[in-house]
């Protein structure tokens, strides 16, 4: 009933502890530790049913290249990524490389074992909420995932975006209020919220930040009028 598996991680202590725990639960662990650079070769040579492949940086470009190579040369091997609390992008990258699932470093051994059994059965071994986010990222990948302007833009409401555009155009509170059809006190409140969300202390700083990050290029078409 036990699974023939491997645990491959840069951190030997973590790999050996997990391997020992899995052995106690009746699984056959072929190897316990290896640097990430040699992970693919080791897995390809041993051809386990399931491989637990550790990573500390799931969002780093190229981090899942070993998974790609393993799946290309040993497609029957199910690869489970073992890593920190992931972002949808990190999980999406793992699945795109061919991984069968993602297991968090702080998961209980029972959870790790369930993931192993799912992966061997050909099922996706990842929490439903994380899986939904990952598939969303795969279907609609961000054109510039690390773009600061896009990140800042997501923090603002459509009305705050319009206020920022007007601030960058040099409009004072009175002009902002008139242009948006709101009271000057409301306009001042919007401006303060924009400054707070952007983490700046003045309108000039807000305008400079928006220009530097390309936020204005994205915001202007969306603001309408």
From TrEMBL:
One of its GO terms (molecular function) is DNA binding. Keywords: DNA-binding, Transcription, Transcription regulation. GO terms for biological process: phosphorelay signal transduction system; regulation of DNA-templated transcription. InterPro entries: CheY-like_superfamily, Sig_transdc_resp-reg_C-effctor, Sig_transdc_resp-reg_receiver, Tscrpt_reg_LuxR_C. Residues 149-214 form the HTH luxR-type domain. Residues 4-120 form the Response regulatory domain. Gene3D superfamilies: 3.40.50.2300. This is LuxR C-terminal-related transcriptional regulator. It comes from Streptomyces rochei.
């Amino acid at each position: 009933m036990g699974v023939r598996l491997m645990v491959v991680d840069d951190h030997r202590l973590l790999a050996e502890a997990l391997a020992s725990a899995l052995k106690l639960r009746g699984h056959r662990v072929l190897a316990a530790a290896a640097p990430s650079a040699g992970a693919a070769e080791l897995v390809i040579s041993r051809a386990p049913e399931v491989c637990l492949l550790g990573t500390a940086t799931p969002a780093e470009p190229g981090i899942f290249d070993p998974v790609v190579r393993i799946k290309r040369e040993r497609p029957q091997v199910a690869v489970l990524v073992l890593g920190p609390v992931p972002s949808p992008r990190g999980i999406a990258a793992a699945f795109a490389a061919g991984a069968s699932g993602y297991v968090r470093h702080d998961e209980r051994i029972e959870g790790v074992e369930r993931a192993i059994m799912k992966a061997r059965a050909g099922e996706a071994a990842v929490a439903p909420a994380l899986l939904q986010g990952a598939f969303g990222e795969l279907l609609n990948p961000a054109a510039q995932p690390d773009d600061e302007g896009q990140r800042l833009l997501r923090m603002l409401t459509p009305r705050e975006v319009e206020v920022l555009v007007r601030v960058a155009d040099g409009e004072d509170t009175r002009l902002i209020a008139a242009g948006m059809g709101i009271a000057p006190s409301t306009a001042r409140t919007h401006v303060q919220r924009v400054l707070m969300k952007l983490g700046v202390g003045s309108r000039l700083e807000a305008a400079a930040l928006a220009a530097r990050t390309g936020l204005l290029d994205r915001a202007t078409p969306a603001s309408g009028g």
